[in-house]
Amino acid sequence: MKIAIYGRQFNNTVLPHVQQIFNILAENDIETIVHDKYNQFITGKISLSKKLHTYQNYHDLISSKVDVMISLGGDGTLLDTVTLIRDSNIPVIGINFGRLGFLASINKDEISSAIKSLINKEFTLDKRVQLCIESDRNLFGDENFALNDVTIHKRDTSAMMIVHAYLNGDFLNSYWADGVIVATPTGSTAYSLSCGGPIVLPRSGNMVVTPISPHNLNVRPIVFV
């Protein structure tokens, strides 16, 4: 098994738990590769039995034939992890070092049992829908996938914006609002919910379009089946 690790910078209280993760992987002779920036951050902070291999992007992960990705942090870190792996179908396990743990649901005291279950392949996969963003000028490069939502929002102005929305090439609506959110079922409980959008079951596959502070009160969120 080959495991990739992605994480963000952390404070010293998290250090023993990060050390524990690398110890367990080393003890079980698991081939591990670490995101380049995260490797730079942890170098000198934790003890390693051997030098780690690193990766920088999606293409490195694919060429390395990674089996599983471990995300170290909170829900924000896990969202970044999913953007990184795109549509590769690499399973992600989230260990929660942050404040929110809706997606990164493994707590610090569950690290040992969770990783051992992972190594022994004693787990089930929870499949989630993603969004892929395409633009004429390739604005997002290789990081054009999102697990939660895509938001178009006004910037540096108090005026509202107009967003013309189409579904499969057919005109849907023109939104006069502060912006528009396109959310997945996973993202339906995030920003979209705060803007009055509905909660959608994670496995439903439905998408939600939620206007942000629309001028017309009759313009409501729409769920696509």
From TrEMBL:
InterPro entries: ATP-NAD_kinase_N (IPR017438), ATP-NAD_kinase_PpnK-typ_C (IPR017437), NAD/diacylglycerol_kinase_sf (IPR016064), NADK (IPR002504). Its EC number is 2.7.1.23. One of its GO terms (biological process) is NAD+ metabolic process. Pfam families: NAD_kinase, NAD_kinase_C. GO terms for molecular function: NAD+ kinase activity. Keywords: Kinase, NAD, NADP, Transferase. It is an enzyme of class 2 (transferase). Belongs to the NAD kinase family. NCBIfam families: PRK01911.1 (NF002521). This is NAD(+) kinase. It comes from Daphnia sinensis.
